[in-house]
Write a structure and sequence with these properties.
Number of strands of chain A: 9
Strand content of chain B: 15-25%
CATH topology of the largest domain in chain A: Rossmann fold
Distance between the termini of chain B: 11 Å
Radius of gyration of chain A: 19 Å
CATH superfamily of the largest domain in chain B: Metal-dependent hydrolases
Helix content of chain B: 25-40%
CATH superfamily of the largest domain in chain A: Aspartate/ornithine carbamoyltransferase
Number of strands of chain B: 19
CATH architecture of the largest domain in chain B: Alpha-Beta Barrel
Number of helices of chain A: 11
Largest interface: A-B, 26 and 24 residues
Structural class of chain B: alpha/beta
Shape of chain B: globular
CATH class of the largest domain in chain A: Alpha Beta
Distance between the termini of chain A: 10 Å
Structural class of chain A: alpha/beta
CATH architecture of the largest domain in chain A: 3-Layer(aba) Sandwich
Shape of chain A: globular
Oligomer: heterodimer
Amino acid sequence: MITDLLSMEDLDTAAITTVLDTAEGFSDIALRPIKKVPVLRGRTVCNLFYEDSTRTRISFELAAKRLSADVLNFSAKGSSVSKGESLKDTALTLQAMGVDAIVIRHSASGAPQQLTRWVDAKVLNAGDGWHQHPTQALLDLFTIRRRLGRIEGLNVAVCGDVYHSRVARSLVQGLLTMGAQVTLVGPPTLMPACVETWGTAVSHDIDAVLPKTDVLYLLRVQRERMAQQFFPSSREYARIWGVDRHRVATLPEDAIVMHPGPMNRGVEITADVADGANSLIADQVTNGIAVRMSCLYLMLGGDA
Amino acid sequence: MTATYTLAGCRLVDPATGRDEVANVVVEGEVVTAVGRDSAGLRIETDGLVCAPGLVDLHVHLREPGGEDAETIASGTAAAAAGGYTAVCPMANTDPVCDHAGVVEQVLRLAREAGHCDVHPVGAITRGLAGEELAELGAMAAIGVRCFSDDGMPVRSALVMRRALTYARTWDAIICNHAEEASLTDEAQMNESELSSVLGLGGWPHEAEEIQVARDLLLAHGLRARLHVPHVSTRGTVDLVRQAKARGTRVTAEAAPHHFTLTEDVVRSYDPVYKVNPPLRTSDDCEAVREGLADGTIDAIATDHAPHAPEQKEQEWAQAPCGMLGLETALALTLTELVDPGVLTLFQAVAALSTNPARSRDMSGHGGPVEPGAPANLVLFDPEERWTEDPRGLHSRSRNTPYAGRALRGRVRHTVLRGRFTFRDGEVVA
């Protein structure tokens, strides 16, 4: 059904709906005593991680194992990459070993797309540079739909470092495809170039946005951006754009708060908000497994 | 071969004399001895070919010394001969850097031994291209260097730039500053635009080029010093140079074929063959470069020929080096993309590829005039021949052309350097 999963740009409404519906079916597996189905038995999935990641790699590993696939974990630090092997040579090696799918995380935007030119295996983008992180967007859409029953027509505020965020790029595309209204919130320095072409609203005043927001999606704001003069201090950031319980109190009653992790508690989000009643942050992590099972199944399952 | 021969029946296009006519060009030894109806010696039929002064490239990277896996002076000048060039100006960013007379002499010797094309090395402005201490410009000027550049690295300090422009006046030499305000391009990977924001690649804003050019134009104007602006890639830079010329600033400018034939859209593929500095820009910038060439704001077409070994280019976009090949496609791209659509006349095209660049560097014997007594530095090309770029046929040691598979019109047939064929009927002459 899906060949490679590189970008949310490649998925239309029907494709996203299929992924989410399929994920609903898989989400029950986690509740069973034996959390495993045999749909990908005999298939080999390689997790090729060039960038540190705990939750995404573990989530993909669990997803593949629950589908009974064989899983190889290749992390750049423990491989010949540290001795200077190129991505292309690594790809050709995996190709020669006959893996069926490669899940790749890389700090360079576009690396998954380049990989497709060198291997026959299906390629799943687990995050590339500032570009895309499609399974994060899909698990977020899944989480929103589960909690609020729909995506279309919702007002979603995506707040924080949009400029450097692959999560924002993929999520915004997915939300727009599914018919949500999106407002990007944050300092102008952290908005991407030509943001007016993104099809979203943009606001620098979070307090004006919150009362009309159904989903408040906070992005990680890395402290090292201060050194690059994107904002003067994390204290000032927290004061103007950070979300604490006072700000959360201005959201509509059913509104939800989400964050892709890892969080910088005290910068974009305070601890009481992260752990509060509106927070779906733990659900996002749980749902990630079912959504990744769905993606792997739709790529590798079926008649092939 | 330096016998006497006649290039019979060619269309001579020579901006230096204003000639555009069918003629015989007689060559004896190293020089042209007659242009007109006379003939002498061996008759070489050149019916249907355009004969022009050999092409001159102000901006190439020949990689030697230090980068011989990508190009050598022999392979790079062979590519130049195949592209119709009789003179090229290699930049100083070799290893060691061409920042003293010893490297200049080494480059000149290797070029002489290869014999494919004249080489006019560009010296570094500062030691090690570090932008801090002036290199010994005088020692390099004494052995013929006319232009100094830290190409690839901007001279960031306004003071060092001002001193370089001032000091170079001793020899009325030309300073060419890499046009990039580097504090704005720290994480730059492509043109800053809607596309860069979608692709998640750091943006190289057009202002970074224009700020640097504006500063350098102001400094050069006040000092009456000679400034050359390399690889103009934005509409704003074209406007700045146009205004400066109107004010009487002593400035010349060049543009690369990829900046009038390719736009940033190709970066969608994340194929680093399209990664170049300054980056591919928008179609509006391309249009501005064409306008600048048409109205003479941009004097020269220079390739910024930048070979890289395959393993360098077959990396992740962010890690791959900038640069693309240019010597073997520049003439055909100019003919196909500028002359055929009527942006430039053939006359203007030859001027931009030969006469203007030669004059801008005070090169005698290149860029015409093609007249009795002048060195026979010539290119003969078939303006009608259609061909398709195939990287396997390149003479460069590298293969990083962004034009693989591109349909082109107009092809070099012969190149003549001081009477001797360096490229004949599609073959480099050893």
